[in-house]
Amino acid sequence: MFGTMKQEHKFLEKLARQNGGVLLVESVLDAAKDPDCVLHKHFQWDDTKAAESYRKTQARQLIQRCVVTIDKAPNVQIRAFVSLASDQHSGGGYRMTADVLSDEDMKSQLLHDMMMVISRWKRQINLLDHDTVSILDALEDAIATKAKSQRKDRGLHRNSNDIN
Q: Is 23 helix (H, G, I), strand (E, B) or coil?
C-alpha cells in the first residue's frame, strides 16, 4: 500500500488510535524526536537547516497567495505565479502567469499539469463519491479539448510561418 513506508504507516496508525482516531502533528513530532523511532529519519533535526526549509515553505505560501485580476473578467482572480511540472524537474521556481498564458508551449504544459491534478482528484474522489467523478470527467474533457485545439492552432501558426 505505501511501498517502503509500511513501518511508518503502522506507527502513524498506532498514534492515531491512541488519540481516538485523530493523528496530531504534535504527536508525530514528539514521537519522531526519539532517534530510535521509525519516523526520526524523515525530519531535519538541525535547527538551522530546518529554519531555512521552513522559510522556503513560507516563501512558497506567499507566492501562492499573490493573485491578479483578468482584464476581460474583473471579478475573477487567478494566481499571479504558477509552477510548471517541467520547471520542477529542473530545480523548481515559479513563472508569471501572464508569461505562461502568452507562450503556447508553456500554456500547453500548464494544461497538461491541470490534467494531472484532475487525475489525482479523480483517484481521491473515487474513494468517496463515484457520482462526482462525472463532473471531473467533464472538466477533464474540456481541458483536453482546449489542449487539442491549442496544438492544432499552434501547428497552423507554425505552418504559416514556414510559408513566409
A: coil
Is the model's pTM score more than 0.85? Answer: no
CA distance 19 to 3: 25
Question: How far, rounded to the nearest angstrom, does the alpha carbon of residue 21 sit from its chain's CA centroid?
Answer: 27
Task: For residue 96, report the phi and psi dihedrals to the nearest 5 degrees.
Answer: -65, 130
What contacts 19, CB < 8 A, 6 or more positions away?
27
25-66 residue pLDDT tens: 999 999 999 999 999 999 999 999 999 999 999 999 999 999
CB 84 within 8 A of CB 95: yes
Residue pair 15/38 in contact by the 8 Å Cβ criterion? no
One-letter amino acid for residue 39 of the chain: L
